[in-house]
Amino acid sequence: MIAFWVTAGVLSAAAAMLMLWRAAGAAARPEPTDVTSIFYRRQLAEIGDLADRGLIEPEERKSAEAEAGRRLLAAADAPVEAWTPGVGRGPVLAAAMAVPALALALYIAVGAPGLADQPFSARLAKWRASDPRTLAPAEMAAVLEKLTSERPNDPEGFRFLALAEGAAQNPAGAVRALKHAVRLAPERGDLWEMLGEAEVYTAGGALTDDAITAFRRTLALDPKNIAARFQLARAKIKAGDREGGLADWRALLADMAPNDARRADLQSAIAEASGAPAPVQAPPMAEGGGAAGGLSADQMSAVRGMVDGLAAKLQANPDDQEGWVRLVRAYAVLGDAGKRDAALKAARARYAGKPEVLDALTQAAAAAPMKQGQ
User: Fold this and answer.
1) Structure pTM?
2) I need a labelling partner for 96 at 20 to 30 A (CA). Which of 11, 28, 41, 364 fits?
3) DSSP code at position 173
């Protein structure tokens, strides 16, 4: 690293000497050079070249040439002033040599010049040898990406990679992994469902064409799939078929188990789309206090990983008001009142002077929990 700074200093000094040498040559000329006239003559030549190649219309050529000619005549009539350097060459050269020298001294004082290189391959090998439970989501994603490159025909590996990418706050990486997984196992409805949800998450909640295609494939393989039925009915409403989408949602509600925690969200969506007041009810809890409804352990782990990743991102870059609103809503939906209140308190303190943000935070904190008692 020290060699790098020495080389950078030498190159900076050489560049400064080159510029000073050219400047000295310009100052030593007996007659001043009219660079303005040269510029407009070149501009006229370029206009003619563009017109000859058919890139500008004849009328545009006439207008451009007239303007450039006018400026050329004005420049020819103006007195030419000789160029003189405003600063001596000595201070410029000294500054060019001092900056990298000071940077090197600062690096030696506060940096770690003796620290050995840490190539990614060595870190990856260390992560692979570690207990997976000790790895950060991004590290786990890197390990799984390596494993999938070694086993490119295993759709399950790409499914786990997608979960890790989601936990690492890389939804685009999760989408790529799931697209590879469905190419390997197009008959698996769970992979198509995950792909559809990842597409929606990547698009900020919007139903893209790719997401709709994924949910249609999910429904073709699993006609009772709740997520696919919900999202495709939502797509109908977005496309203008409100009655058709509401009918599909009501049919879905009739098919859902009484203790499915998603019923409350679906009833709220139906009420909102139909213009009726949202129902007020306590969300049901599955037996044993676990996750109610159809979220699998892997899916719940991915959701919690995404929320933890968002929290870590806000710790590093807290000036993200939309991120705070999403975090508060996520904790509310997960039923984690303690973390919801802590995030709400921190966000309110940061945005105390922004009432619109405070209102959004209050609404987010009031989101109905998806489950209880975990």
Assistant:
1) 0.51
2) 28
3) H
